[in-house]
Design goal:
15% of the residues lie in helices and 52% in strands. The strands form 2 sheets. The chain has a 12-stranded antiparallel β-barrel. Strands 2-16 form a two-stranded antiparallel sheet. The protein is globular, with a radius of gyration of 19 Å. By secondary structure, the chain is mainly beta. The protein contains 4 helices and 17 strands. The N and C termini lie far apart (41 Å).
Length: 280
């Protein structure tokens, strides 16, 4: 379960963190018809809405992006996981394509993501296969309100939703330098059918009663976490520096009586994502 959750966390981290900052990133973009961007990101604490593996893994991923008219985009990244037990390992790659828009009153982001693993990976059948997501924000000078929904496909489909509020601060420091800060509060909801993948692995079968109880828990739509974050972007010319501190409070953490190896590990935590990007 340790490796399984690590790989799952990598994918969810990528498809949530990278597209979710699109609104903030757009505040410092230029108006070229086609843009190429390359960047690198580091995340100190991998998690799935406050759930972690037992190895306290971190991640690093370079990212390549293509944007067309600041609306259509496709990006791809190989993801590397690190922890003190296994060291650094290639975990797989993620390809995302989507559509983003923004006007004076509304912003929206819809995307499809696909993980790509090595042919000899033993986790392909258990890992998340696709994610489809869409979100819309009502913009105002005082506060922006965001609502979104997603489908995550593994052996079964998981349904998710998000409700959030944020306020964008944008300061022009010089003719070619901008600072953007975006304090944000989100409530994340969804089902957890992916959790049963781990329970079905050979050698990890528990009592029938525990399995039935867990089935009820993972199929229930519930609040998964509350998250406070404050993305910060400093842009100068074609270079962007990105910092995303966040505090996550997991909710409805699944436990299996007498089986800590089958229970989710969830705790309040601070996470930090740091990156740099160049617009070519």
């Amino acid at each position: 379960m340790k490796k399984l959750l690590s790989y799952y966390l990598v994918f969810v981290l990528f498809v949530i963190v990278v597209p979710a900052k699109g609104q903030t990133d757009s505040a410092v973009s230029n108006t070229k018809s086609v843009q190429f961007k390359i960047g690198t990101y580091y995340v100190n604490n991998l998690h799935y809405f406050g759930r972690t593996d037992s190895l306290r893994s971190s991640a690093f991923f370079p990212l390549a992006e293509v944007w067309v008219k600041q609306r259509f985009y496709i990006n791809a990244a190989p993801v590397f996981v690190y922890n003190s037990i296994a060291g650094a390992q290639y975990a797989g790659s993620v390809v995302t394509t989507g559509y983003y828009f923004r006007n004076t009153k509304w912003a929206g982001n819809s995307f499809i993501s696909k993980p790509v693993y090595k042919n000899n990976s033993q986790l392909v059948q258990s890992a998340l296969k696709w994610q489809v997501s869409s979100s819309f924000s009502r913009l105002s000078k005082l506060i922006n309100v965001t609502m979104g929904a997603d489908l995550k496909f593994s052996n079964q489909a998981d349904y998710g939703a998000i409700v959030g509020v944020d306020h964008l601060f944008r300061r022009q420091i010089s003719d070619n330098a901008i600072l953007v800060i975006n304090p944000t509060a989100n409530m994340n909801m969804g089902t957890q059918n992916f959790f049963q993948i781990a329970e079905k692995q050979p050698g990890l079968i528990g009592a029938i009663g525990s399995q039935q109880q867990t089935s009820e828990q993972v199929s229930r739509f519930a609040v998964l976490s509350y998250e406070l974050s404050s993305p910060v972007i400093f842009a100068r010319g074609k270079m962007q520096l990105i910092l995303i501190p966040a505090f996550v409070l997991p909710q409805n953490v699944i436990t299996v009586s007498g089986r800590p190896d089958l229970s989710e590990r969830g705790r309040n935590m601070f996470t930090l994502t740091a990156g740099a990007k160049i617009i070519l």
